[in-house]
Amino acid sequence: MTTSVGEREPVRLAGVGRRYGSRGPWVLRGVDLELPPGRLVRAVGPNGAGKSTLLRLVAGVDAPAEGRITGRPPRTAYVPERFPPALPFTAHGYLVHLARLRGLRTGA
After folding, report:
1. Long-range Cβ pairs for the range 34-40 (8 Å, 24+)
2. How far is CA 54 from CA 16, 40, 85, in A?
3. Which of 25, 47, 68, 87 is 20 to 30 A away from residue 6, measured at CA?
4. How are strands ordered across the β-sheet holding 11-19?
């Protein structure tokens, strides 16, 4: 798929799976998903269903153990549910911190 300047393509997950450790249990397996640009998408499910793992994969924080993710924008961010005690961030403060690490000014 070819996109013109300023146009974004969807993020696509094809057969994506994630496990922790080479022989650990699969947290996600066989995920096929298309996330259209500019759309709000909600992930719902019980604790342990893999929602946070899916978000980390889409943001590029973790790599899939199998499958492919394409179309990810060059700049993505993930706000974890909990921060380590040594990092007393709010969600906004964490995003500003990530932006500065990637060379963006606070206004951006």
Report:
1. 34/10, 35/10, 35/11, 36/10, 37/8, 37/9, 37/10, 37/11, 38/8
2. 9, 15, 24
3. 68
4. 26-35, 11-19, 66-70
**Structural domains present in the chain:** 11-74 (3.40.50.300), 77-108 (no CATH)
The whole-model pTM stands at 0.72
Alpha carbons 19 and 29: distance in angstroms, whole number: 8
pLDDT digit string, tens, across residues 9-60: 999 999 999 998 889 999 999 999 999 988 888 889 999 899 999 999 999 9
Strands 11-19, 26-35: pairing is: antiparallel
